[in-house]
């Protein structure tokens, strides 16, 4: 659905996007994560044919961004991070106006607009003035707008920025629905937890370079190369830590307050000896569990050393 090959954009000496290669298929909801200025918008604008790359190639549904601009614009719905709305219109008029620009005419136009309003849970505001919407409601109308022509690919630039927690949850639910509808979605954010539970795939961009890219499961697996145990004993934690350090399974031990963090050697899965060793030395355990690997800890682990 979307393929980029060494996609590159420079602004003078600055390499805003540096040889990004990506391949996304139908139903992929790709969380594009990176700090401010890392190149997310620039990448999306190139895929949307709004900006010419300096080097590299991108295809949307098999069509090149260089030769099939018109076709790609029909296939893509791009929601920029900032977009204007026309104040003196009702919500429905606003959508009908944009539907007309997509040449959606006749009786189907109203129906399509109402369907998209339904999809973003905004039917109850169909007759409200656009100027009277909250920021979250405006974002949702923006999403309805980019879906009017039923694009196969959605490029959503920070759709949840500036929204309250409830509106963020609604955007997440909507992203899930889009994936279930077999759309291909790229959604950017500089906040990882915001996207962690809705994306099927994640990529992290730093200074124009894609430093991690993979299906959520793969990323977690990569990060899980070494199990970390969280251990707490009733007393003499420092001594217990020293004892653990002598065990064959353990690679590195550190303290976090009164908790011992024991990182096992990569690939070591069986650590059943460790509680035994502690018991036999007279320690009483109050905690013994594996550190949970969620997407956030996975990223922290995998990007160690890659970010300056
Ligand atoms: N038109 C331009 N001229 C010069 N430099 C630009 C231009 N557009 C973007 N840049 C630079 O390119 C880099 C990448 O910008 P981009 O907007 O793609 O980042 P981003 O990851 O989307 O950031 P944010 O999270 O802040 O939206 C930044 O250093 C930015 O200053």
Automatic annotation (TrEMBL):
PROSITE patterns: ABC_TRANSPORTER_2. Residues 2-232 form the ABC transporter domain. InterPro entries: AAA+_ATPase (IPR003593), ABC_transporter-like_ATP-bd (IPR003439), P-loop_NTPase (IPR027417). Transmembrane segments: none annotated. It comes from the Bacteria. It holds the Pfam family ABC_tran. GO terms for molecular function: ATP binding; ATP hydrolysis activity. Keywords: ATP-binding, Nucleotide-binding, Transport. PANTHER family: ABC TRANSPORTER, ABC TRANSPORTER, ATP-BINDING PROTEIN. Belongs to the ABC transporter superfamily. This is Putative ABC transporter ATP-binding protein YbhF. It comes from Rubinisphaera italica. The lineage of its organism: Bacteria, Pseudomonadati, Planctomycetota, Planctomycetia, Planctomycetales. The gene is ybhF_1.
